[in-house]
Amino acid sequence: MSRSAPPPDSVNKRSSRRVEVDWDVDCEGDDTFLYASLGNVSELGIFVLTETPFAVGTYVQLKFAPRDAAPPFVLNGRVQWVNEVNPNGENINPGMGLQFLKLTADQRERLVDAIHAIAYLRSEPPAS
User: Fold this and answer.
1) How many CB atoms within 10 Å of residue 77?
2) Helices (H), 5-84
3) Per DSSP, which regions of the chain are E strands?
4) How far apart are CA 89 and CA 63, in angstroms?
5) Residue ranges of the alpha helices (H) in the chain?
6) pLDDT tens readout for residues 22-42
7) Which of 80, 94, 99, 106 is nearest to 2 (CA)?
8) How far apart (Å, rounded) are the C-alpha atoms in residues 109 and 115?
9) CATH entry, 14-123, from 2.40.10.220, 1.20.1730.10, 3.40.50.720, 3.40.605.10
């Protein structure tokens, strides 16, 4: 399968808010394990920062958690697009965008709650 970056206008057509995060993630797909970091998360998917992404269309199981959160999320997804490593070093965000698949209502609610908590904490004014 070919690897490709998202269409240029897809970033502006996202139907859910993405929140920047720095969480560890374990990805398992095609009998391969990948330990990486999340760059952002939404209720529909995540961006995994990695120089060794899976191919577009690969089905993966993801395991990640906000800092100090338990239990971790264990979710299924599919690679939707890949941002390849540029040999000239011009690409500072290599990785892959994954869409969550078959989230249960409980999984979606927990994920939305975690995203809202992060967004709320980041919007609080600094203590004086």
Assistant:
1) 24
2) none
3) 19-29, 32-41, 45-49, 59-64, 73-83, 95-101
4) 29
5) 105-123
6) 888 999 998 899 999 888 888
7) 80
8) 10
9) 2.40.10.220
